[in-house]
Amino acid sequence: MTRSAEEYALVHALIADGCDTGRISRLTGVPRSTVRDWRLGLHARAERAPRDLRCQQHDYRLIPGAPYSYLLGLYLGDGCISPSRSTWRLRIVTDARYPRIIEGCASAMEDVMPGKRAYRLVRPTRCVEVSMYSNHWICFFPQHAPGRKHERSIRLVAWQDEVVQRETQAFIRGLIHSDGCRIVARDRGVRSVRYHFSNRSEDIKGLFCAALDRLQIHWTRPSDRQIAIYRKADVRRLDEFIGPKR
User: Fold this and answer.
1) Which uninterrupted H or E stretch holds 87?
2) CB 8 within 8 A of CB 19
3) For residues 91 and 118, is the Cβ–Cβ distance under 8 A?
4) Per the domain annotation, does 173 fall within a domain?
5) CB 203 within 8 A of CB 153
6) What are phi and psi of 170, to 5 degrees?
7) Which helix (H) or strand (E) holds 203?
8) In what order do the strands lie in the sheet with 119-122?
9) In the chain, what is the greatest distance between 2 CA atoms, to the nearest angstrom?
10) Residue 186 parent element (H or E)
11) Which DSSP helix (H) or strand (E) runs through 195?
12) Nearest 5°: phi and psi at 28?
């Protein structure tokens, strides 16, 4: 059986992470004998795809809006795309304390790229990397470029902006699930709930604020990096589609 480039890339990524042959086989579904062969450096029979060319074959109107908008928010907050041999790897770093967010991230990836599988890799630092391999991630996330996000321009292209305008709630939820939090505080003995979003990129903070404006949710900026939502009515509005992290 000829294995795909994505499977080959994933196996080698797991080998580099120090996983043993049995665990790699269980995670990927690739037979142990094949994993052993690839570990020994034998050539994989996988098609090689260009790494640096964005194809023109996509009809972005067919992308499932809510999963994509949510995944875009996660990517802008805690995601990256990197080359992996003959394909691309989208990786979202999530907190191991929140299994629903982990599963929501994996589900969004699989909805956006039907027929492919998202993988979860638990790190010693109490985080879980959710990743998927595809030749088309750089088409779906044209914000990918060399350098850190906060050191370069981040703008949505026209088709992304259309998706986010249709699915604004999902976009905000993805940003909060990656770089935000819901805080329950006691202010002079009175319980108060607020949402915070923190990011170093002015452009990403701008996208977050524009999305809040679209839903007529009032926000403030208590510090250079932070956006806060304090008003009770606005917090209740966010609770309708976000709520506590789980």
Assistant:
1) strand 87-95
2) no
3) no
4) no
5) yes
6) -65, -40
7) helix 202-214
8) 79-84, 87-95, 127-134, 119-122
9) 67
10) strand 180-187
11) strand 190-198
12) -105, -20
- DSSP classification of residue 4: P
Which residue, chain included where needed, has tokens 């606005």? 234
* pLDDT reported for residue 84: 79
In a domain, 203, yes or no: yes
Asked whether residue 230 is assigned to any structural domain, the reply reads yes
As given in the structure block, the two tokens for residue 235 are 């917090």
Element (H, E) at 7: helix 5-16
107 in Cβ contact with 67 (< 8 Å): yes
**Cα 34 to Cα 6, 18, 37, 233, distances in angstroms:** 14, 17, 5, 57
Does an H or E element contain 168, and which? helix 168-179
Q: What is the pTM of this model?
A: 0.80
As averages over each run of 10 residues, the pLDDT of the chain (246 residues) reads: 69 77 84 81 44 66 96 97 86 97 98 94 92 93 89 94 98 98 86 95 98 98 95 98 97
What length is written for the chain? 246
Domain annotation covers residue 231: yes
pLDDT at 58: 82
- Res 5: pLDDT: 67
Q: Domain total for the chain?
A: 2
Q: List beta partners, residue 87.
A: 84
SS3 state of residue 170: helix
Domain that holds residue 11: 1-48
Return the pLDDT at 2.
60
What is the spatial distance between Cα 169 and Cα 174, in angstroms, rounded to a whole number?
A: 9
What is the helix, strand, coil percentage profile of the chain, to 5? 45, 20, 35
